């Protein structure tokens, strides 16, 4: 507000009035103003919770390895709260006009109601019965995939390498359920499945790397208290983006005095600098092409696109891995200094390993863009190979496109998983009446990818990397065991990227020996291939038994 000189002089004259002068009368307040002043002076009532935890109990059984396992199932929600805003956000608040601030303050603080399905083996004492927390990734994915495809007591049957016909779908006893080794808790991330978010800044509060890790940390510690599982051997199983969450959780839980016995990673991506991009957009970043090459070679081998195709896949991939980290990596590092003869020689080798034409590889400058391989490998047949699992093929949507327009595996099996879980949840678990089940939500591009590593004083504006989190967790809990699993036919999170990450995990050799590796002739969802489902069940069950003393 501006004050004129005349008004200013008038105020000075009033100030100079002798003390004997009559004091000014108080300005009369309107009833509305008086009510507002009174409300402002009185303490505010505590904000009422948005969500209320709930739980529905049921019973069932599964037969695993010929043995019947009776269990109690708990389908319900726990409520977690947004962290307090950081100093930067507080400063932004201070600059907000009072009216807007008042409006915002009237909104309840953000909460997430996180849905879970827990299975507890009957008669097993909690003191020595392992418990495993499982989740998929996305970000923005529910955990329907691990639940109905891998380790829950019931499993949906899908077709191998082709589109699963429409309903009715077949749901069977899951003889590969992990209930033979551990109690299980399948968790849907905030906003996915039957989980929901609400309140002030709900997206900013839960849709980000560190926000997500914090929400799951709150959930797990609450769960341990609710069901009396603090003294149980504890495991975290994450798939895809869930591996980033899982590695972050290993440290975040330790900071809440929860030591894990084991961390199980499936189709891991802990360092997002290894994700491929368009070389025209992000030139000079060459490692993603190096770590993706063995998966391209495995795919070409599978579809008989490799010249002089060797009989053994593992022997072939060892050769490709050596080329990828040797001659190929050196050629990419040289950039524009790479000579024409060497460029031609490397392109010829790439063609041998990938099944792509030399002329095409020279046009790409030896760098195969994400999605381009899937589109080009069988382009003469107008077919596209899968991204999550390159064993799958589908009709190309746009023959003139540069990259694949969709993922044939996702299109082939997603409807079966979602329908089967909706039917199972509402019919068997008796949960979800009147509520939409969201298998996934479109938040990938809106996700807050800033992450604060344990040695940094603030979140970094960079692609997230949770290898430092895992390293600190393993150093401070030297008994923590880590199991890495992956599929050879996964372009989304290439198996060799997982190997490469762990080669650079900053821990001493004696701690690095706590990491073990298992790879399968399947894709991202290893369990979508029946022989691989059997193998990963046996490997994970053995890992839990070895590291927990479970019987």
UniProtKB/TrEMBL annotation:
Can you tell which superkingdom this protein's organism belongs to? Bacteria
Looking at the record, which segments are called Disordered? 18-61
**Signal peptide positions (record):** 1-21
Q: Where is the composition biased (Low complexity)?
A: 18-38
Q: Which UniProt keywords apply?
A: Signal
Q: Which SUPFAM superfamilies match?
A: alpha/beta-Hydrolases (SSF53474)
Name of the protein described by the UniProt record: Peptidase S10
């Amino acid at each position: 507000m501006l004050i004129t000189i005349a008004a200013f002089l008038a105020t000075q004259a009033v100030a100079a009035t002798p003390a004997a002068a009559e004091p000014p009368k108080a300005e009369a307040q309107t009833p509305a103003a008086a009510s507002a002043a009174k409300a402002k002076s009185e303490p505010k009532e505590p904000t009422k919770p948005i969500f209320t935890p709930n739980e529905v109990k049921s019973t069932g059984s599964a037969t695993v390895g010929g043995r019947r396992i009776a269990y109690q199932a708990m389908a319900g929600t726990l409520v977690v709260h947004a962290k307090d805003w950081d100093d930067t956000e507080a400063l932004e608040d201070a600059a907000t006009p009072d009216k807007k601030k008042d409006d915002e303050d009237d909104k309840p603080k953000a909460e997430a109601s996180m849905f879970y399905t827990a299975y507890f083996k009957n008669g097993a004492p909690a003191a020595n019965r392992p418990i495993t927390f499982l989740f998929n990734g996305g970000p923005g994915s529910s955990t329907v995939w691990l639940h109905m495809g891998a380790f829950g007591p019931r499993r949906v049957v899908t077709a191998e390498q082709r589109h699963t016909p429409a309903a009715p779908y077949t749901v069977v006893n899951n003889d590969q359920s992990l209930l033979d080794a551990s109690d299980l808790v399948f968790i849907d991330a905030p906003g996915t499945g039957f989980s929901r978010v609400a309140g002030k800044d709900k997206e900013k509060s839960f849709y980000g790397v560190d926000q997500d890790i914090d929400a799951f940390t709150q959930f797990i510690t609450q769960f341990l208290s609710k069901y009396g599982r603090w003294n149980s051997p504890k495991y975290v199983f994450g798939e895809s983006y869930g591996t980033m969450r899982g590695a972050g959780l290993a440290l975040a839980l330790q900071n809440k005095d929860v030591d894990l016995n084991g961390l199980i990673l499936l189709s891991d991506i802990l360092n997002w600098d290894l994700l491929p991009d368009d070389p025209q957009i992000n030139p000079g970043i060459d490692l993603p092409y190096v770590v993706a090459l063995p998966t391209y070679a495995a795919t070409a081998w599978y579809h008989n696109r490799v010249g002089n195709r060797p009989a053994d896949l593992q022997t072939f991939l060892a050769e490709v891995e050596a080329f990828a980290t040797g001659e190929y990596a050196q050629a990419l590092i040289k950039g524009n200094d790479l000579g024409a003869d060497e460029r031609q020689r490397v392109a010829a080798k790439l063609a041998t390993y990938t099944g792509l034409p030399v002329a095409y590889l020279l046009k790409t400058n030896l760098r195969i863009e994400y999605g381009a391989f899937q589109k080009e490998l069988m382009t003469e047949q107008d077919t596209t190979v899968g991204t999550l699992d390159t064993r799958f093929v589908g009709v190309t949507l746009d023959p003139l496109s540069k990259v694949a327009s969709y993922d044939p595996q996702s299109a082939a099996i997603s409807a079966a998983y979602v329908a089967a879980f909706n039917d199972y949840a509402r019919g068997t678990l008796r949960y979800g009446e009147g509520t939409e089940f969201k298998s996934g939500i479109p938040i990938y591009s809106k996700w807050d990818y800033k992450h604060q590593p344990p040695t940094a004083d603030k979140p970094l504006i960079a692609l997230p990397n949770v290898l430092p989190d895992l390293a600190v967790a393993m150093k401070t809990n030297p008994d923590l065991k880590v199991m890495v699993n992956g599929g050879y036919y996964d372009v989304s999170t290439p198996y060799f990227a997982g190997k490469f990450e762990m080669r650079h995990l900053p821990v001493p050799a004696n701690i690095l020996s706590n990491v073990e590796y298992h790879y399968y002739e399947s894709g991202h969802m290893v369990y979508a291939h029946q022989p691989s489902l059997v193998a990963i069940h046996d490997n994970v069950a053995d890992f839990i038994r070895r590291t927990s003393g479970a019987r």
